[in-house]
Amino acid sequence: MGLLQNTEPGRRMRMTKLGLETFFNPKSVAVIGASKTPGKLGYNAVQNLLNIGFKGKIYPVNPKGGEVLGIKIYPNVKDIPEPVDVGQILVPAPFVVDIMKDLAEKGVKYVVIITGGFTEAGEDGAKMEGEIMRIAKKAGMRVIGPNTTGILSAPASFSTTFLNFDNMRVGGASYIAQTGNFASITLLWILTKEHYGLCRVIGLGNKCDVDDADALEFLGEDPKTKVVGIYVEGLKNGRRFIEVAKKAAKKKPVLVLKSGRTKAGARAAASHTASLAADDAIIESALRQAGVIRVKHYIDLVNYAKAFIYQPPPKGNRMGVITPSGGLGVVMADTIESSGLSIKPFSGETLKKLEEITPPLIKVGNPFDIWPAVSAIGNVKSFDEGLKAIIADPEIDGVILGIMQNKGVDELKDIDFIIETAKKYPDKPIVSFATGEYQLVEKLRKALETNPEVRIPLYYYAEQACEVMSVMYEYTERRKAIA
Known about the structure:
The chain has 483 residues and is of the alpha/beta class.
């Protein structure tokens, strides 16, 4: 991290800033605003640290003293007898400035301010936020927030969120968000629904100090982070962000959802985190030049990250398609062609192999409608032979695999053959979707996505699987362009 130059217009100051590593690997944390009352935010924050197995020291702080969950509460952070790495502030906004002074006097260099009511709330709040930064700069502190749920570091079993959760699935997906959602409600969604694990989550809030570029610079160099998803309403320092993003995108996929594109969205962003709207066409062009993938929907940050975690990006755009019905094949062909991918005819050898498993007089091609083969020779044999033939085709760069899940002849229970085939072609990604009985689809999704040898992402709709593969190919092209 080291020496950073502030390149904001009108600013010539050059200053040395601490890196962000301690935020994500602290040995101790002071929870300021801790509570003995179950259900309160200050209680939940301490409980979460215990639930997820934080190995460092926890110092609850509240003027009333006492204990919370068997841990002594200190009246003031200055009363803590040992050094404190991270200060987590949960007290109401009018008290935060004094708390910052106490933290500075204690020598705490890393602070996460959960509290809202600052720049986003108006002039008085902006003045308090300015005073917070004056204290932080004088003391050489780094600050995340205010107005956020803060951070998560799964490898260190550390979090500042106040929403209750008790399981931590460690993985390679990291998120930067100008909202507390990713360290709270979206965190809960990922932990309870998805099978890929999290690495780091950085909720920036108002970005009074640590901003998008700082966070992305850290994650770009973080060996545990394999893909980065970013939700942003406004860039504090656009030029530096693009420079950092270009470096990061050479090493790993960077997905960005830039909101506030419309007048209504810009107004909402201004009231949420005091972000000002910028020309969307300029932002689009800058992100493209940096090699960043811009996504359209909030859930894309989850769906696309999963694919990059599980499968390699395709080297080319030529897709082989297996569809469980002719109608879905047409839908997939439309989606593929309109999203930058290509459906080309299979080679003669591939067609011959597909014809061997398909009843006579039925024409085969790309997309390959597998239902006639399933009805003739069974589910496993048809999928096994069909997938082997298509993925082996030298003119195919990846496979989009559509599966039917209904009790009876078309229920796919055994996935061993899929895994074995995927292992033989590690450079050709497989992205799947399944339709039919929901419970059976979920069972199949778990089997494919949690396999210890090869993990294949499964989606609920044909269009989703096609769009995911398109984004993976887009990253291939972006990375070539910035190399």
